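Colleagues,

For the teaching module next term, I've prepared a clean inverse folding example: a structure given as tokens, and then the sequence designed for it. I'd like students to try predicting residues themselves before seeing the answer, so please don't circulate the second half yet.
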């Protein structure tokens, strides 16, 4: 993780085309607006879990299912490997496919918990802020 405070310098001059951000992880430059948007979305989801006993029961049921937890573990490991550890030339296609699969998995989980509008906002946030339109 890199903390970004200044734009890049070329020949002693500040390059205005370089994007500023709060921090950078694996090529993604995170800006204040992006972080606030995603945090508001996550807080809304967490608040919804807090207010609904039915959703908490579904979450406990899901996490106590061994098949789901093992599958989730392998999904997380595979995603970390393809997004951060794999340095092969065809990594871009693999990375895009993995990002789309994570979005699809997240939408499936949100559907399981009866979040009706959340998939729209996940797709919108990732397409707008993370350039997921490819």
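(Answer key — instructors only)
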């Amino acid at each position: 993780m890199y903390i970004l405070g200044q734009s890049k310098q070329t020949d002693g001059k500040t390059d205005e085309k370089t994007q500023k951000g709060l921090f950078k992880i694996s090529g993604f430059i995170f800006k204040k607006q992006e972080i606030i948007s995603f945090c508001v979305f996550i807080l809304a989801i967490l608040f919804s879990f807090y207010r609904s006993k039915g959703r908490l029961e579904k979450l406990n049921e899901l996490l106590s299912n061994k098949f789901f937890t093992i599958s989730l573990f392998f999904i997380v490991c595979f995603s970390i490997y393809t997004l951060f550890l794999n340095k092969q030339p065809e990594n871009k296609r693999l990375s895009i496919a993995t990002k789309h699969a994570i979005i699809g998995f997240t939408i499936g989980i949100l559907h399981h918990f009866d979040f009706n509008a959340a998939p729209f906002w996940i797709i919108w946030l990732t397409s707008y802020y993370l350039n997921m339109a490819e």
